[in-house]
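job 3f2a | input accepted
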Amino acid sequence: MKKIIITLLSCTLLLCGCTQSNIVASEGNRVPDTEIRGGIEIEWGQVWDDLDAQFLDKELYPFSESINGNIMDEENKIDLVLLVNEEITKEQASEYATAVLKGLNDSVATQDFSFNPSDEEFYGDFVSNNDVSVLVAPALSFEDPSTHILEDTIKADEEYRPVGMPAAE
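job 3f2a | predicted structure (169 res):
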């Protein structure tokens, strides 16, 4: 019995003596750096991977085939080509293209916090600062312009409107 009590007391002393109530000591009045920095180099491969992961999901977008595009920073221009299967309406194409554009902006905004993310009535700063050309076409016949489901151009700083919809009067 004496051995058990001594063992328990030893364990208690060991545990109490080896722990510290404040493991990380504060070092004065340091505050985190929350300043937004400009000139961030965007990792475009990651942006395209993010878009593929989100918008080529066959459960959410069964008509999706591929997302292609080109970002021309010097010209402030975005070209986006969305290839789909032929089982898609113009309204679905509009909703899909609008969602992909917002997703593009939000992926860039996660890398560079100087860009505001999208919301219900806003593509976000990155997309809104560029002229955007969008093409939604069937994957099997995208080279034939007569089969294109949707083609649209949205100018930089144009008032928000979904892709393929007329501008508000």
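job 3f2a | The chain has a mean pLDDT of 88.
job 3f2a | closed
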